[in-house]
User: Fold these one by one.
Assistant:
Number 1:
Amino acid sequence: ATPMALLVGTARGVQLGILIKGPQILESTRRVDTIVLDKTGTVTSGRMSLAAVVPADGEAGAEVLRFAGAAEAGSEHPIAAAVTAAAAAAEAQALAGVGTGAAATLPALEDFASTQGLGVQAVVEGRLVLVGRPGWLAEQWAVELPTELAERQAELEASGGTVVAVAWDGRARGILSVTDTVKPNSAAAVAQMRALGLTPMLVTGDNERVARAVAAEVGIDLVRAGVLPSEKADVVRALQAEGRIVAMVGDGVNDAVALATADLGIAMGTGTDVAIEASDLTLVRSDLVAVVDAIRLSRGTLATIK
Ligand code: ADP
Ligand code: MG
């Protein structure tokens, strides 16, 4: 394609809400045959809400939520946003009931740290609080869920929940389930990708049950679940090793390496700065139909004007 055609294509992209880093990127867009989609915030809205609090025997649900909310206040993850908002709302309601009129605040946190794709830790009221993947608490912290909580975890995951464990002072205190919804256009976008001959795949750090449920809802049959942030790029490389030309679509800090590794990195406009910087294209409206528009645009521009 001529430089002029590429510039025209780039300008048309802007009209479609697709920000293209450089005109030459339309060339790699045109060659893509496989589209790897991150789940949370890409296929789903990423606005999670708290669906259940299950305390361990002898614990109070309100306490579990309060400590988890306080620890998660240090994180920007969608799970953290859901837990902190629910905890703050519960505190406000409890205070209103007492009639103090005092501003509801969660306890302060100290020594916060997060581990990408696994969970968070913080000291709250002198206790070391952990919130994260049950497997991370078990392997990294030797905190196992009691049988009754492990059973509830399986039930909540079967109904589409993302379950995190809450522990302090070395003991599991409860589990929380958060849920997310598929974006309105995701299924239509996947259907259009297939119509263009593209192969969609879902990749997520979330559990297998949730990943399968979301994939089924939007019409994807290739799923990689439980993938650590560092492993998302490995998924892309394995597809490239099969000779595929891979586009990766994501929004999170945890997607950045995979976005940079892919032949074409596509970031959601609502995504983190790190994801946008690692990408070749940014979708202003964070709507997956724009991925299809970008591919149509690249094929059209590059096929007709030579
Ligand atoms: P995705 O690939 O869907 O964007 P992530 O890699 O961000 O998911 O997270 C994977 C898993 O790690 C989550 O399902 C959760 O179990 C755990 N996790 C990550 N961040 C947090 C957090 N701030 N609080 C609790 N759990 C977390
Ligand atoms: Mg994401």
Number 2:
Amino acid sequence: RIAYVNGQYVPVSKAMVHIEDRGYQFADGIYEVCTVVNGRYWDMEGHLARLDRSLRELQMDAPMDHAALRVVMKEVVRRNRLKNALVYMQVTRGVAPRNHAFPPEGTPPSLVITARRFNLNRGDALAESGVSVISHPDIRWGRVDIKTVGLLPNALAKQAASEAGAYEAFLVRDGYVTECSSSNAWIVDESGALVTHPKGNTILGGITRQTAIACAEELQIKVIERPFTLEEAKAAPEAFLTSATSFVTPVTAIDGVRIGSGKPGPVARRLREAYKARAARG
Ligand code: PMP
């Protein structure tokens, strides 16, 4: 596997960052995860727009402009000879002697891009069976709308899910489900409408969430952006989650409580199909 690290393409085993990188010392960095489906980047515009937003919110310099970034993103995938890929891109505030305040102006940001195989079939199998989730307290900071590499609470939640034999964790703040550890959370209400937490400082605005809303509109399925409680989710006819890597994945159990029939529901299925069709169109 080949990675891009600050201007060079190197084998992943030789790819290194400095011990005084601010990403390493302060989690002072942001990232994006996007996919290449059948040789084409999917939702790239959205991911680059969110990258810019994260940089702006943290007053961080961009490592290069979009045109150059697109070239490097394509080159990493090409060098790894991948047709379907998961691409990870991280920007940090660069290298400087440890000090909480920002380094001097002009300190170059660090940029790392890696790619690995994206197994589309695995996602399909999970979507066929549906996944179970646990609920977990949302103990994250007040700006989770910024996609920072400070993911310790997310990692703890995912680990708890994993130990419980579950796929994801529904994060709960004040009784309401905000999102999951690495995906957005949705339910279907009694009328068949989709319900998901509104954007704001308490969720990450998923690119897949946005595209799923567009797919729902195409299918003439109503989308209501409002908070929903854990109890409401457990009693809902359907639940599902969205992310760049899992697309639309039906949730069939929450804390061991069966959702609907305990099988993936029709609304989530339709939405997943519509989403996949869109991704295939590119
Ligand atoms: N919420 C969190 C906390 C995430 O880490 C992710 C995945 N990056 C998402 C939601 C889903 O976002 P996207 O659809 O852009 O992958």
